[in-house]
């Protein structure tokens, strides 16, 4: 695993990578412990008359149309957004890696079949696919939403891993392992998978930004995370009718999305350059 | 001595650019007895590495072993095996040392780990036991400071040390046959001698049969019991080593010896074989060496079989039947 550690070190030396990593760690830290520290429970409705208050003492980021503290909701929303994207990305990267490994290593009819499936899936826009599934269901529980996002995002990763495996398959040590009588499963998981971890990590990091945007978009359309669970996309949707009167209710969750996606992409870019310096 | 490997009429084909298939290895046959070393000698592209891969059924697609070929390992038909039965042969019955120790080790695992992999692929032993055996193997191949090297990554070792690791891996499952494909080509001359010495010692202590694949006649002398010379996918001459060196009979073999510089005797210009090996897609009809052969004659227009020259000595040349030759 030395190559991977080396890549992470190189990404850390890159100013983009370091900025992204620090910001991501900060956001993750806030998401983890923030809700416990904030006095105002995120979901509680204040007494009448506290709606649409501008930022100030008591409500540092103002309050929304339902008198809820925007700061509390942005922080709780971080938890939801990060959790959704982490689990969904983990799922899609795992699926993509499996399909790519099997397809690339076994080749032949298996490879042809799986890759045509991927081609077909890539021909349908992901958002359209998601809208189709989500519109069919009346109301989706959070785990189902994660499952749906995760299972529609692995096609590109599968291609990436397959290409890497096609290269690795020709490596002398893979042939040496086969000559030694190593089982197929063993060749795949011990000799191929560890050598694809670099590109996989890049795909995962860049995928996090994508999924946060996707989840925010779906929630904004009212199809993602369902109220009253706070999510950044849902908050912007809630703020839409009062965007002129109380812009803070929409601006701050929007800002949170921008900063999070930006830092994930910064880190992902730095990592990609570290894993594959030729592309820089 | 008992027969352990019997290869007959081995033909390996690849699709040719103009449709159809060409034969990179064409009707190869040889046998190997227990404790014996057979050297397979030839220029690059003559099909010797492909032959070694075929023994383990690792010919890379789209290459294909043609029907009619036979590889019998102690009576078992290797070409009929599939799946698990085939896996049990790889490493366990036939061990393989690859040419380039720089690329044949996985860079992300320690060498101890990779030796243990070969052991655990074939024996139901614990991790600790596999580690113990790996250490013993490293000692056996003469690795300096073996206990520390067990946890080293391949990039931390020199070329010679890596080749020792490769040998340890090949020996991990205690195979009956060791195939060494150009085991010293990638190494410095001084290290070459050390590695060959290790191979000789292990062959004798384990009683293995060795198939030594090389282009270097220098490492064959005094090491192999028999030599088979390959040219263009075929064996052109086969003889006990001493006899081949004393009396090379096939014009190609004679050409090989003439192109090796001599330390003793008068200094004279080397006499290389004219022309170059034709590609497998364009092998001439009749004797394949004919276009480059100084002794080609009318009968060379038809392909000669392997004809007897002397005891245990055969060559693929009609000259064997001409009076006064070779």
Ordered list of secondary-structure elements with their pairings:
The complex is a heterodimer of chains A (280) and B (326).
Chain A: H1 2-13, H2 15-37, H3 70-106, H4 108-123, H5 126-136, H6 142-151, H7 155-169, H8 172-179, H9 184-220, H10 232-239, H11 248-275
Chain B: E1 3-15, E2 21-33, E3 37-41, H1 48-55, E4 64-65, E5 70-73, E6 76-77, H2 83-89, E7 94-97, H3 111-120, H4 127-140, H5 146-149, H6 159-171, E8 177-181, H7 189-206, E9 209-214, H8 217-220, E10 226-231, E11 234-240, H9 241-246, H10 251-258, E12 307-310, E13 313-315
Parallel strand pairs in B: 3-9, 3-10, 7-8, 8-9
Antiparallel strand pairs in B: 1-2, 1-4, 1-5, 5-6, 10-11, 11-13, 12-13
Q: Could you give a quick summary of the protein structure above?
A:
Chain A is an all-alpha fold and 280 residues long. Helix content of chain A is 73%, strand content 0%. By secondary structure, chain B is α/β, with parallel strands linked by helices.
Question: How would you characterize this protein structure?
Answer:
The complex is a heterodimer of chains A (280) and B (326). Chain A is mainly α. Chain A has a single domain, classed as MetI-like (MetI-like fold, Orthogonal Bundle). In chain A, helix 3 runs parallel beside helix 11, helix 9 runs antiparallel to helix 11 and helix 10 runs antiparallel to helix 11. Chain A starts with a helix and ends in a 5-residue tail after the last helix. Chain B folds into 2 domains: 160 residues, 3-Layer(aba) Sandwich (Rossmann fold); 73 residues, no CATH class. In chain B, 28% of the residues lie in helices and 23% in strands. Chain B has 10 helices and 13 strands. An 8-stranded mixed sheet of chain B has the order 7-8-9-3-10-11-13-12. In chain B, strands 1, 2, 4, 5 and 6 form a 5-stranded antiparallel sheet that branches. In chain B, a hairpin with a 2-residue loop joins strand 10 and strand 11. The longest helix of chain B has 18 residues. At the A-B interface, helix 8 and helix 9 of A face helix 2 and helix 6 of B.
């Amino acid at each position: 695993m030395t190559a991977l550690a080396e890549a992470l070190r190189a990404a850390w030396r890159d100013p983009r990578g370091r900025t992204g990593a620090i910001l991501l760690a900060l956001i993750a830290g806030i998401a983890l412990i923030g809700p416990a520290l904030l006095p105002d429970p995120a979901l509680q409705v204040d007494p009448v008359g506290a709606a649409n208050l501008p930022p100030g003492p008591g409500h540092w980021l103002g309050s929304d149309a339902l008198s809820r503290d925007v700061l509390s909701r942005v922080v709780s929303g971080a938890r939801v957004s990060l959790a959704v994207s982490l689990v969904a990305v983990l799922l899609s990267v795992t699926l993509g890696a499996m399909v790519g490994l099997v397809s690339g290593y076994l080749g032949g009819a298996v490879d042809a079949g799986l890759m045509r499936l991927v081609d077909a899936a890539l021909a349908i826009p992901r958002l359209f696919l998601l809208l189709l599934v989500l519109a069919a269901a009346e109301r989706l529980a959070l785990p189902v939403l994660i499952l749906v996002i995760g299972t529609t995002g692995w096609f590109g990763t599968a291609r990436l891993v397959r290409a890497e495996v096609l290269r690795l398959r020709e490596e002398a040590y893979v042939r040496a392992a086969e000559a030694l009588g190593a089982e197929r499963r063993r060749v795949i998981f011990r000799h191929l998978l560890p050598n694809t971890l670099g590109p996989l990590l890049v795909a995962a990091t860049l995928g996090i930004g994508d999924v946060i945007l996707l989840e925010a978009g779906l929630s904004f359309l009212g199809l993602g995370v369902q109220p009253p669970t706070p999510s950044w996309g849902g908050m912007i949707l809630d703020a839409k009718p009062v965007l002129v009167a109380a812009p803070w209710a929409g601006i701050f969750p929007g800002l949170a999305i921008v900063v999070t996606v930006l830092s994930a992409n910064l880190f992902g870019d730095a990592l990609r350059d570290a894993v594959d310096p030729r592309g820089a | 001595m008992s027969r352990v490997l019997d290869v007959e009429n081995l033909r390996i084909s690849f699709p040719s650019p103009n449709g159809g298939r060409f034969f990179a290895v064409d009707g190869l046959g040889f046998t190997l007895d227990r404790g014996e070393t057979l050297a397979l000698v030839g220029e690059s592209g003559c099909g010797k590495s492909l032959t070694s891969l075929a023994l383990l059924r690792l010919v890379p697609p789209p290459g294909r072993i043609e029907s009619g070929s036979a590889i019998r390992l102690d009576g078992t038909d290797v070409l009929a095996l599939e799946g698990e039965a085939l896996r049990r042969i790889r490493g366990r019955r036939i061990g393989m040392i690859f040419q380039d120790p720089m690329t044949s080790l996985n860079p992300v695992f320690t060498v101890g780990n990779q030796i243990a992999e070969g052991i655990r692929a074939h024996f139901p032993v614990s991790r600790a036991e596999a580690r113990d055996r790996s250490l013993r193997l490293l000692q056996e191949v003469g690795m300096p400071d073996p206990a520390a090297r067990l946890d080293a990554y391949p990039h931390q070792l020199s070329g010679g040390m890596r080749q020792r690791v490769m040998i340890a891996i090949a020996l991990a499952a205690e195979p009956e046959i060791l195939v060494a494909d150009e085991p010293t080509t990638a190494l410095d001359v001084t290290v070459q001698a050390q590695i060959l010495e290790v191979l000789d010692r292990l062959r004798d202590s384990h009683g293995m049969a060795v198939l030594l694949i090389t282009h270097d006649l220098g490492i064959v002398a005094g090491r192999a019991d028999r030599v088979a010379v390959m040219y263009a996918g075929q064996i052109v001459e086969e003889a006990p080593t001493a006899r081949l060196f004393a009396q090379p009979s096939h014009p190609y073999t004679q050409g090989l010896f003439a192109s090796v510089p001599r330390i003793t005797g008068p200094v004279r210009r080397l006499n290389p074989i004219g022309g170059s090996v034709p590609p497998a897609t364009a092998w001439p009809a009749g004797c394949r060496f004919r276009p480059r052969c100084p002794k080609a004659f009318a009968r060379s227009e038809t392909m000669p079989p392997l004809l007897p020259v002397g005891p245990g000595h055969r060559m693929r040349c009609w000259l064997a039947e001409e009076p006064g030759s070779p």
